[in-house]
Specification:
about 300 residues; Nitrilase/N-carbamoyl-D-aminoacid amidohydrolase; 6-stranded mixed sheet; about 25% helix
Length: about 300
Amino acid sequence: MQYESDIITVAAANFKVEAGQKENNLSRILDFSKSAAKRGADLIVFPEMCVSGYDFYTDESTSQKEKEEMAEIVNGPVCDRLSLAAGENNIYIVAGMAEKDGVSGGLYNSAFAFGPEGFIGVYRKIHPFYKENTWCRKGSEPFMFGTKWGPVSVGICYDTYNFPELIRYYASKGSRLYLNLTALAEKIELPDSRREFLEYYGTMLEYGVRCNTIFIASANLTGKDKQSYFGGGSCVIGPKITPVTEAERVHYYAGGKDDVQAGLVMATIDLSLARRILFTENKYTGEPDYRPEIYKNWE
């Protein structure tokens, strides 16, 4: 499959939220986006629920009315400002926030995508995690958006770590870059919590790369929210060139699992390394190894 370009510069934000302070968080999202564009980024991804803060919605002391008032609608004020910023800075912006459906009034844990031409669309988290199910509905549709680098795909946190079907689906449809918006906390009451965070977060992202030969840009919250302490670790990772193979190895192009400081990580990557032997013709069988036509028939 041919694309207009293979070379893209991607930024991911280690983002420190101010719980419930939408205007302050949005201001910093806009500033980070502008800064990333000045440094040459084509795309920037922000964490899950970065506009309001993650704990604002899981905190039981926050009323349902407050949650609904904090949520964003498509083409609402926050959407308009991020659309304008993407256009002015000629950059793609993907940011996590609570969404209120304009028809049903239901709330979703969503990722809003914007590009140089404005608003693109919304991904609604398909697998809400744990207490998220007390305030948001389940999404049901995958989401990719077209670029000159091919389709860019989106998932949120639990979607990425525990449901490999999503990344595999995207890879089979030609996506070479997957964006993971996450709010992954450390269990600070445990003495070895940092090691536990690093092992889980890194292992699951690296598995996604190894299994699908895809690039992943992951953006996590960092520092203290209202209740949780988030682990940072935003990064851009993907296939690695070795003397043996250019697949099934993982390289950290920017950022790393142990980086907890607020700021941007950024890398220029070559998406042509995302070579998909699973989805191309096997020279011994004459057909792809990936067989979705039989998987869907299993009971």
